[in-house]
Amino acid sequence: PVIISTLLTPEQADAYALNVRIAEITQKLTTDDVLPKGRPRSPSPPPIYDKYGKRTNTRVARYKSALEDERHKLIGKALRTVPGFKPPPNYVRPLKIQHKLYIPVRDYPGVNFIGLVLGPRGNQLKKMQAESGAKIQIRGKGSVKDGKEDTRSSNANEDLHCLITADTDEQIEIAISLLDQIIATAASTPEYQNTFKRDQLRELAVLNGTLRETSNDTCSNCGMPDHRRAECPENNTITNSIICRVCGNPGHIARDCKERTANNRQTNFNTESNHYDDEYQRLLNELDKPASERSAAAETKSPSVPDSPTAQPPLPPAPPGSVQPPPSLPPGSLPPLPPPPATAQPPLPPAPP
């Protein structure tokens, strides 16, 4: 151990600790001594092979990748906080900084974290990426629909997580804070009280064109505005479930509707009564006429109408000795059979005396 003889400020102590840790990691990576010593081994993940059949997630490769990620973060912090700091000679700054934020789907299996992170049509994810400047991707188990394979990355066997890629650590931290806020709200708030999800559903309804403003609607249960029947705090009543067919408001029937004025009722009554009076007066006039006039009027009102449009007028009587043509038969019918010939009956014997 190194003994520090002079007093250091907190900034100097942090800078010294950063330099020591960076030098330690650099030495391990240079000598390929990346495996921990004296620690029990954790369960190994399922093996992953490349296209040449070589395993890519060996124990050495996993520890080496973890040390490289730690060194990238420490060097980035030292460049911002330590004046005059220079990275190690063999250090190659990565083009992008990556961070994995795991989503607690096992602790909260009934919460749709993916839908909350993506938002309606992916607008929530785009908004977080624009605000933080980092690229956010959902990877791991459950990020791809059933029946499809995730060929874009080798993280398909890992737990569900958000892969954050950015140029600086500040962008990573901003993205982490935004994602943590969504995850914490979804995990601690019931679904029916989650205002964040309610806003997303409203935005989706606006995008689909199915939004119904409830400001002018009244509850069919209590008659109060600003909420619907399903959100009514009062209990359901039979009176409030009755809908008037005249005005459409609940709580009364059409007979008790105030919008049904007395003028309308009187007009309808007068119209019906006048119709009945005219019919009765016409009947009295018919009864006062003589029987001959009534029969003549009936004949003029109801002229003789043939039974059918195909009825034929009666034929004139045939002259004596002429042969009458057979009657016309409808198509598809057979002529009637002739009557059987009359047979002579033998005379009856005389009655005995």
Question: What is the name of the CATH architecture of one domain?
Answer: 2-Layer Sandwich
CATH fold title of one domain? Ribosomal Protein S8, Chain: A, domain 1
Largest sheet: number of strands, sense, barrel closure: 3 strands, antiparallel
Sketch the topology as an H/E string, one letter per element: HHEHHEEHHHH
Number of helices: 8
Strand content: under 5%
CATH class of one domain: Alpha Beta
> On the 0-100 scale, what is the average pLDDT?
76
SS-derived structural category: mainly alpha
What characteristic shape results from the CA principal axes? Answer: elongated
Task: Describe what this molecule looks like in 3D.
It is a single chain. With 353 residues, the protein is mainly alpha-helical. Among the domains are: 10-81, no CATH class; 97-145 and 157-208, K Homology domain, type 1 (Ribosomal Protein S8, Chain: A, domain 1, 2-Layer Sandwich); 236-262, no CATH class. It has eight helices and three strands. The chain has helices at residues 10-31, 59-81, 113-118, 123-132, 169-188, 195-208, 262-288, 291-301, and strands at 97-102, 135-139, 161-166. A three-stranded antiparallel beta sheet has the order 1-3-2. The longest helix has 27 residues, at 262-288. It is elongated and about 165 Å long. The N and C termini lie far apart (171 Å). Residues 304-309 have low confidence and may be disordered.
